[in-house]
Amino acid sequence: MYMVVVGAGKVGWNLARELIDRGNEVTLIESNPNRYAVVEEELEHAVQQGDGSELWVLERAGIERADMVIAVTGDDEDNILICQVAREKYEVERVISRCNNPRNLEHFELLGVRPAISATNLILRLIEHEVPKYGPLHLLDLPQERLEIIELEVADTSPAAGSLVRDLGLPDGSLVISILRDGTGFVPLGDSVVEPDDEVLVVLDIGLEAKVAERFAPAGANEAA
Questions:
Q1: Do 114 and 179 belong to one domain?
Q2: What is the pLDDT of residues 113-124, one digit of tens each?
Q3: Most Cβ neighbours (<10 Å): which of 93, 114, 173, 204?
Q4: Sign of the dihedral through C-alpha 145, 140, 151, 192
Q5: Of residues 159, 197, 204, the one with CA closest to residue 179
Q6: Structure pTM?
Q7: Pairing between strand 137-142 and 147-153?
Q8: Greatest Cα pair distance in the chain
Q9: In the sheet where 47-49 sits, what is the strand order?
């Protein structure tokens, strides 16, 4: 694939290096001349100096033939603009953007720039995964497909504990796709038993999260809430 990466900070530089090592053709764009000089010592002809939000710079980098454009500058407005231009003007089918401030994710979504990756949100999800608590952990959101995948821990006193998968009483539009137990996972059958402290992965339609979560929470938790 031919990829244009805009922003040669630590993320962009390391990303470009890995993509090149995997056999892709990459052009990395960096606006800061000092940073460009440092990166150019390693990547040589694969890096160009210029403002990636300017059309002539993108065209010089060959955006017209790009299979993917990845915007990872430190400025969210620039990243949004670069992805919008790539998709709307140059008809690049695949764009990925870095979101520096998670509060701006809504703006990325409203302007149709997706996927937008927030390192802060990714780390928060990892923290949630490592800190035991009853409640849904979002593993994957697919807003265009109106689907999401969540992980739930089975409380000892929850309605799900000791139930067969087919008897969980989950709403239409939701499906158990995996159970994690004692460090290993498996795809359950209808007669698989859900045990306390299992971690259950569920794919569901957007909007069903609360109804699904109540089946795995401790008895009485919803009334208390």
A1: no
A2: 888 887 776 766
A3: 204
A4: positive
A5: 197
A6: 0.64
A7: antiparallel
A8: 63
A9: 47-49, 25-30, 2-6, 68-71, 94-98, 116-117
**37-60 pLDDT, tens per residue?**
999 999 999 999 999 999 999 999
- Tokens 């979560």 sit at which residue? 213
pLDDT tens digit sequence for 181-214: 988 899 999 999 999 989 899 999 988 988 998 8
Tell whether 85 is covered by a domain: yes
Based on the domain organization, do 32 and 113 belong to the same domain? yes
Contact 39, 8 (CB under 8 A): yes
Token readout for 83 is: 């992805």
Query: Does 9 lie in the same domain as 86?
Result: yes
For residues 167 and 157, is the Cβ–Cβ distance under 8 A? Answer: no
> Which domain covers residue 37, as residue numbers?
2-121
What CATH code is carried by the domain that includes residue 147?
3.30.70.1450
Q: Is residue 126 part of a domain?
A: no
